[in-house]
Amino acid sequence: MSRRKIVWITGTSSGFGLLASIVLAQDGCEVVATMRNTEKQTELIRRAKEAAVADRIHVRKLDVTCESDIASVAKAVVDSFGRIDILVNNAGIAVGGFVEDVAMDDWRRQFETNVFGLIACTKAVIPHMRAQRNGTIINISSVSGRIGLPAFGPYAASKFAVEGFSESLRLELLPYNVYVCLVEPAAFKTNIWETSLGNTSIPASSAYQERALRMMQQIERTAQTAGHPHEVARVIRHIARTPRPKLRYPVGKGSRLSTVAKAVLPWRWIENMIVKRI
After folding, report:
1. Residue 117: inside a domain, yes or no?
2. I need a labelling partner for 59 at 20 to 30 A (CA). Which of 46, 74, 132, 273 fits?
């Protein structure tokens, strides 16, 4: 049985999940790197070989919206390594648009991945962590889980749900020495801008068309100046190394400022500033 920390990460074909897989493997962990389409593992494997950690990264197929996939991965991890020390719930999508314009199917798709998929993966590891009386569950949230912005309604709602779920679960699991943590990134250069928010469609009939276009321009500017996702991977590594990690880890430009501002400023001031910008 391996004495290395055993880590299961979701959404590892790119972005935070890919980089976290590499840095945790470099830290000596055995990483079960899961992704919906394993044909997209090429970049992960290339970087793992460059870092000389390919033997510590084990790619498996996982669609977090498929409960049988989740059960299969959880069983495979325990069968192979005897335990699960860390779960990183990173898989996610971002649906953008003004609430009135977003179809209900898109709302459901947003929550199936970001919320219900995350919960299902978490439930799959809890019995093992509780029995071994040790473990860390790292949920990748967002600054959008602390403050909602126009045209981000579906994404923000899903991340607010993750925040509430994580707070409740942390209190449930602390007596078993299992720690639930939230990583709250601001804007970073990941493909979420192109694959999700960057492709937000604005119906020609939308009453919000002019404001939506301004928001899309704001998103493009933000994407160009966003930080490097290595910063988030390093935070995940820090949590993995910490025996008693705290609940929240805001990371990136403006992540702390926005949450502090919401806590101390009158909400009317905040909404006036946001509305004027668009």
Report:
1. yes
2. 132
